[in-house]
From TrEMBL:
It comes from Cocleimonas flava. CoA binds at residues 191-194, 309, 522, 583. The keyword RNA-binding does not apply. This is Acetyl-coenzyme A synthetase. InterPro entries: Ac_CoA_lig, ACAS_N, AMP-bd_C, AMP-bd_C_sf, AMP-binding_CS, AMP-dep_synth/lig_dom, ANL_N_sf.
Amino acid sequence: MPDIVHPVSVEFAANANINAEQYQAMYKESIDNPDGFWAEQANKYVSWFKPWDTVSDWSFDQEDLHIEWFKNAKLNVSYNCLDRHLEKRGDQVAIIWEGDSPEDDRKITYKELHEEVSRFANVLKDRGVQKGDRVSLYLPMIPEAAVAMLACTRIGAIHSIVFGGFSPDALASRINDSDCKVVITSDQSMRGGRKIPLKVNADTAIDNCPGVTTCIVVRRGGDDVAWTEGRDIWYDEAIAAASPDCPPEEMDSEDPLFILYTSGSTGTPKGVLHSTGGYLVQAAMTHEAVFDYKDGDVYWCTADVGWVTGHTYIVYGPLANGATTLMFEGIPTYPDISRFWQVVDKHKVNIFYTAPTAIRSLMGAGNGPVESTSRETLRVLGTVGEPINPEAWEWYHGVVGNGKCPIVDTWWQTETGSHMMTPLPGAHALKPGSATAPFFGVHPVLLDDEGNEIEGNPASGNLAIDRPWPAMIRTVFGDHKRFYETYFSMFKGYYFTGDGAKRDEDGNYWITGRVDDVLNVSGHRLGTAEIEAALGLHEVVAEAAVVGYPHDLTGQGIYAYVTLMDGEEGSEELKAELVKLVRGEIGPIAKINIIQFAPGLPKTRSGKIMRRILRKIAADEVDGLGDTSTLADPSVVDDLIDNRENR
Ligand code: WTA
């Protein structure tokens, strides 16, 4: 492991929200007395209409699997993100919106956001949306996405956001799985100067969604769209006609807040269900503690609201804290490769949070595009989504942050709802590539394959958590059995993350990546099973196996082994067709990098594909294949090696 350590800056620590001593004391309290600790945070970060009876009540056992925080307490998320700020910061900017084109921007105050959310909540009610109903959002990065989210929370509807880069099929299956009656989309979305036909995609999806009665369309691209009378309504016309008065619904702490689909190692994507009170407490607390957020800071998270990072760290965490949150519609390379840093200067951004894949691609263009900007307002930098290689970390630190901004490498998951491990900028020495230390209340353990805790340092194993935290997943929507099987059946008594990790001599954690069949491409989660199912739809494909391999830019690339039906011939045209097929089924994020036609796949005698071998061949590590004697036909491996494709 590299020895480079950047000590905590004394100057930074002196003004930090949390310094090293405070971290130690608070962490100890959070583990020794979790209920007392979280009760205090719940009172600090959230305004409740009615207090709770019990702080936590839980079991990870199969028979009785449940997780509850702040039981019977009442609150409303939009009230916490809007109404309670009005008196003190009604005229403060809540959302700075920076459009795809540098000429397009907007500032929305808390007062304005409150009014628009209230109006839109009334529009939803008019269309028959009631507490507990599901609403699907398929939107670009425009302020209306935040308005729609908050409007759902205002009336107790459960939003399910589908990333705009997913295909109509992927959208339809998510709408149907959670039985959404309303879909909110836009005419087109704008990315890198190009228009993407979101409404066309939504129409195609809704054709296969019998439960959808309303489609609300935000005007963005301005081009004509097809219209279904009675079902489709324009967002701007509807809010103009709606009342600006909509009292927030009193929600129970354990009422569902949102569903977000994510890929796992098997089957179709799962609807991760988050509930209200615990999620909001931890979203707000992590946003303040991890980014050292202070009143008046301009905060920018570059994620899309279609991912969990956008939920927690563009919308709910920052707005609960009364922050100014920047929402960016575009891409880092448009109109040119300095865009991120130009936006930092334009809006005087203090805290900047992005993904390693973006850093790596910008690093590839050299220092010039960064150094042409000042970035003097930056104080804290963050990363999320995948391990960051030390080289990219140092570039981010030295060139982007001028060597003066701590970097918080935040490890967490859709299921965890908020940060789980990260250095705190005023408390921890920074080790490039290490997610460092658990957040308050999080008790990570490393388990061997039999489920025994590995004590002592250094160590490495399967990363699990031995107790619940307030923002954790409550169930898989509509499938509590799958919830148990996915996260709690592997190691009894623990939440299993699916990640592997190492703990170094100092007890600091390093995430080594997924140990299951989940791929992480540019920080986006993709299940190998989903991609294999899509490939299997082609009439000449007999079988497919998909694995990840190390990729300089995207972290992992997608390598597919495809066996064709007897008598079929592989060709470059067929490869192109298969790539297109998967893209159409899942979306542009599922771009296969390499296809290898394979007459046979390495299988055990019981017919199980040995992915370990496929991963090695894809990574070009053919010398360390290990034991292949248990294969039904060891000769297939030689063929795979001989015919492997260039990376
Ligand atoms: C990976 C994104 C290393 C990890 C918030 C996890 C990371 C998966 C980091 C969750 C990090 C996320 N270092 N790996 N800082 N952050 N991951 O659900 O494999 O889209 O299990 O949530 O991303 O991805 P998800």
